[in-house]
Write a structure and sequence with these properties.
The chain is globular, with a radius of gyration of 25 Å. It is built from 21 helices and eight strands. The chain is α/β, with parallel strands linked by helices. Helices cover about 45% and strands about 10% of the residues. The termini are far apart. The protein folds into four domains: about 90 residues, GMP Synthetase, Chain A, domain 3 (2-Layer Sandwich); about 120 residues, DnaA protein, C-terminal DNA-binding domain (Chromosomal Replication Initiator Protein Dnaa, Chain: A), CATH 1.10.1750.10; about 150 residues, 3-Layer(aba) Sandwich (Rossmann fold), CATH 3.40.50.300; about 80 residues. Bound molecules: adenosine-5'-triphosphate (ATP).
Length: about 550
């Protein structure tokens, strides 16, 4: 079978799997993007996965639905084999650690036009009492579609010094075309659909799966968290390591796992520890040890007896060797007994600056990042938070006007804390002065100094593309087109890098504006970061470009 036919067949099989009521179409789509069909005969289908983790996940969760789809489509019982293709992994090298399975559950119906509705696990196999909790309402419609919008420039953005005029011949680094990851896709990829099902929420904390708004930026992390909550201690998600910048929802997911388990498996002991808190308790226990021998033992026992241990923000332990050793011992003790460990950090394990034996063990299970939220996700969070706030404050039928919601979503940075506090501020103002009819202009004035982006929130991807085009003398059609010559690839990578640094947008959104996919955008950023480490020419160009671009946003 030629490859075109094979791909066509695979698409039909994927569509069939997605159509099953017990499958979450968006997760199937996200997950199957990590698979490639290699061969198909009358009763045999061979697939390759990015890596071992994906392979074993597919074997556990998707081989049976694929066989079912094949049976439904052909009437024949197929054998489905999955192998690992290291080339595939290499092509997606930039996303090597973003290997995420999906919880095999249906999703809540999406709000019209929005892509931000929580995916939710079905009631887990309850080991104790615990009725399935009430389902909170799904987020209301957001406004769909890509918004070519103004986004903030981080206040800390380095502004360089080299003026454009001093760089008549832009520097070009050595170029190896074969090594370029470049998935050119001028046709926008179809939006992943979200299915529908009931979802749990937990009463013990406000941070639950039920009020976690899902978008492309966090769907996989959410799915993995759900999977862990449903089946704690099961490989391959033990340990689970969630990473991402501040305020993107790592703690929310960890607490949601904890709450879900506490509610559905009352016999299990879950322990959540913030690393800073863990460190101070450890220091305290070590000090008290001289006076009272049991104190250190008590400290350790508290964690050792956990069935599920969640340690948040482990980057905080960098350089704290003794505490890290304790974490590592606990980690080994618990995982060896099949107890679940969940860790989080603001960066991937290998970038934390800890001993290799730690980070390689921490990376041994599921490693997943949370990306900055897309505009639709932010909108979903604004809406959901406003609803939650008005419910908890007993504000009755209060709603936040859609233009105000959009204003906040568009202007807040990726840190959801900033977004939430903007909503609180607006609602508070409305209530305090009995001004439910506040206009978006008034909200703009109220929030004038609230957002961290400052004046550069008027910057867009197009502004950066324009600056890069004139700097490197390339045309827009080349910058976003299929060409892979060195003179085009390098400026394209720089432009993508700058978009990521200055606009704080998800890779997917950036990739789309360059007709590229998420992994190509990620790879571009990783390549430039690599060059920046020791290449003065590249550093100077980036500085010069940042200076030019900063003028656009003044
Ligand atoms: N997808 C989401 N849906 C709803 N609320 C969210 C979402 N993501 C984040 N939040 C909210 O944003 C706030 C910050 O999230 P959280 O504390 O989980 O971030 P974090 O990634 O752990 O940050 P840090 O690294 O600084 O600890 C919380 O109030 C959380 O509930």
């Amino acid at each position: 079978m030629d490859s075109e036919k094979l791909n066509e067949q695979w698409r039909a099989i994927s569509a069939q799997v997605s159509s099953y009521a017990d499958m979450d179409a968006s997760q199937v789509s996200a997950f199957f993007s990590r698979l490639e069909p290699q061969a198909m005969s009358d009763s045999f289908l061979m697939l390759t996965a990015d890596n071992d983790f994906i392979k074993s996940w597919v074997e556990q969760h998707y081989v049976e639905p694929i066989q079912r789809a094949l049976r439904d489509l052909t009437g024949v019982q197929f054998v489905v084999a999955v192998a690992v293709d290291p080339t595939q992994e290499a092509r997606k090298a930039a996303s090597a650690t973003v290997t995420a399975p999906a919880a095999g559950n249906a999703a809540t119906a999406p709000a019209a036009g929005a892509v931000t509705t929580p995916v939710v696990p079905p009631a887990p196999p309850a080991t104790g009492a615990a009725a399935t909790p009430a389902v909170p309402p799904a987020p209301a419609p957001g406004q769909a579609g890509a918004l070519g919008r103004a986004t903030p420039l981080p206040p800390s953005s380095p502004m360089g010094t080299a003026p454009l005029s001093t760089a008549p011949q832009p520097y070009m680094p050595p170029y190896d075309e074969a090594a370029v990851i470049d998935h050119y896709s001028p046709q926008p990829a179809p939006e992943a659909a979200t299915g529908g099902a009931s979802r749990p929420s937990c009463s013990t904390s406000s941070l639950t799966f039920g009020n976690f708004v899902i978008g492309d930026s966090n769907r996989m992390a959410y799915s993995m968290a759900v999977e862990v909550a449903e089946s704690p201690g099961r490989s391959p998600l033990n340990p689970l390591f969630i990473y991402g910048k501040s305020g993107l929802g790592k703690t929310h997911l960890m607490r949601a796992i904890q709450n879900y388990i506490e509610e559905t498996r009352p016999g299990m002991r879950t322990v959540y520890a913030d690393s800073a808190d863990f460190l101070s308790k450890h220091v305290e226990a070590a000090r008290a040890h001289d006076r009272e021998k049991s104190s250190y033992k008590d400290f350790k026992t508290y964690y050792e007896e956990a069935d599920v241990l969640l340690i948040d923000d482990v980057q905080y332990l960098q350089g704290k060797t003794q505490t890290l050793d304790i974490v590592f011992q606990l980690f080994n003790t618990l995982t060896a007994q099949g107890k679940q460990v969940v860790l989080s950090a603001d960066r991937m394990p290998k970038n934390i600056g800890i001993d290799e034996r730690y980070y390689s063990r921490f990376s041994a299970g599921g490693v997943i990042d949370i990306q900055p939220p897309e505009i639709e996700t932010k909108l979903g969070i604004v809406k959901s938070f406003a609803d939650e706030y008005s419910r908890s404050e007993g504000l009755g039928n209060f709603t936040l006007a859609s233009d105000i919601q959009m204003y906040i979503a568009e202007n807040s940075s990726s840190n959801i804390r900033e977004l939430k506090s903007a909503v609180t501020k607006v609602i508070y103002q409305m209530m305090l002065f009995n001004r439910a009819d506040m206009t978006v202009e008034e909200v703009r004035t109220l929030l004038e100094n609230h957002f961290s982006g400052g004046p550069s929130r008027n910057l867009s991807i197009e502004d950066i593309q324009r600056a890069v085009e004139s700097f490197f003398k390339v045309s827009r059609s080349d910058l976003v087109g299929p060409k892979r010559s060195r003179s085009v690839v390098y400026p394209r990578q720089i432009a993508i890098y700058l978009c990521r640094q200055l606009l704080d947008l998800p890779y997917n959104d950036i990739g789309k504006k360059f007709n590229r996919d998420h992994s190509t955008a990620m790879h571009s950023v990783a390549s430039v970061e690599e060059m920046l480490k020791d290449n003065r020419g590249v550093q100077e160009e980036i500085e010069a470009l940042q200076k030019i671009i900063s003028e656009y946003s003044e």
